[in-house]
Amino acid sequence: MKNTVAILALSSFFVFSACKKKETVETPTHKTENQKSDEFIVDSVKTEGSTKVGDSLSVTFSSKLLVFPGLKDKALLDSIYFNEKGLSDFSKTGLQKYLEEEKNKYFISMEKDDELYSDLGHVQEWFSHSNMKLKSNANDYMHIQYSAEAYIGGAHGEYGFSERVFDLKKNRKLELKDITSMPNNKLEALLMKNIDKTKGNASDADGEVKNSEMLLVEKIPASDNFYFDDKNLYFHYSPYEITAYAAGDIVIPISWEELKGTLNEEFKERMKIK
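Above: the chain sequence. Below: its structure as tokens.
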């Protein structure tokens, strides 16, 4: 349950949950976020709902998906909606219908087994929230951040992030090898070297606790959870992935200068890296 990777697959993360519903208040919405830049249109759909379960528990579900009316390549769309199992209709109507079905599945799953909440002892509110956010779209590289947050009892909730960059020229997800040929062991060394370049969330009586002091691993893997801008390549790690929960999620930058000599020539040209 404490695996943040599982949180990013919310469609299956709560399958085991179960409760008995007494009343349901549902608030489906069609939230639109039209953005037009060089004819690239981004829209969105969202659903929300809450349910009273037994005498001591209420649960809330919310989820938002982006809609890309101009994208038609099925393989690309499958990759963009990688976490949405069984999704085949990528239209706004299809995505809204899918979210409504996922919400209903979540509530039904909460009905099936009262053992999960029968001995709560006090009133609680559990939830499942997921979101897609367009972070950038430049040089035909589209960066989407997927986030999810959940609470199903215990000391604290769980949350996590997934970063994906899509090459809109080639209609596919960008891989690390498309950016740099640097061997993994050298990338790992740079990640370890740069881990404290971003401020962590942990603190104690003496003040801020460095990210490096919260590490749970001997080596920081160069994962596929990356994105970039005109200055750096960034690796994003969710809680528990490399550090203790108190450190929060960690973003580690590696500058283009540090990757000099290993950058893919096509990538350099498109990103205008000198």
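The radius of gyration is 21 Å.
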